[in-house]
Write a structure and sequence with these properties.
With 284 residues, the protein is of the alpha/beta class. The chain contains nine helices and nine strands. Strands 3-2-1-4-6-7-9 form a seven-stranded parallel beta sheet, sandwiched between helices. A two-stranded parallel sheet has the order 5-8. The N terminus is likely disordered.
Length: 284
Amino acid sequence: MSDSTSTRVWFITGSSTGFGYLLAKELLRRGEHVIATARDVSKLEDLTRQYPQELRMFTLDVTKPAEIESVAQQAIAAFGHVDILVNNAGYGLGGAIEEVSEDEFEPMFQTNIYGLIRTTKAFLPHLRGRHSGHIFNLSSIAGLAGSVGWGFYNTTKFAVEGFSEALAAELKPLGVHVTVVEPGPFRTDFLGRSGKLARIELPEYAETAGKAREYLKSQAGKQPGDPQKAVEAIIAVADSPEPPVHLLLGKSAITRFRDKLALMQKEIEHWKDVSTGADFPDGK
């Protein structure tokens, strides 16, 4: 065990590609300590050779609870503590609600929701005991605004949003920050290796969910978001004494969420008499 009390230690899930890999690489370049986990850690060997003292790797499948607990304890022991947890592991699944079978969406739930929850809970006693730390939960603009063809992916990311907001409120008095990250389309593997499509394709959804399929197939490598700038934004938030609970990334994410807020405000105003009429009369 090495003493790294003056150096932050980051624990990152899903580090073999995408945001996870780029974040680990950038942190190591800056001299921070990183515990990188992935189902296939062989993809991290280049970083191990370059940063043998600063990097520790562990094989981790976040759908396996016992593995999470074991790796969390080994990770804390590796440098003596963990300061920042980044729940990055996850993937997307395209298809209309009716098209997606349970054996297709359930594994995504296990990764995107249960894996994130279990990994977080594995580190909470440690962070709470230190009265410091930061948890980053990777969500998506899909966690703030639903869209056709991504209903079950929306479900997982909406769950991450609610979990993160509640966790942030619980941990703030204990000195631990929580930030949920909501990227728009970024040029990662999301539409490539990490993107999956439902096996069934019904013609009735060709003009709705079918468009989402076309997007996944045609837009890989064309997304406007720069992944390097995204990881730099995450590090900037970690450096801030007053980090946000929500971090939208990319212009399209901001535009899409503002459009949703505007629509919600319009609906609230239009239906406010019906909404407020659902209460008992004042004084009753």
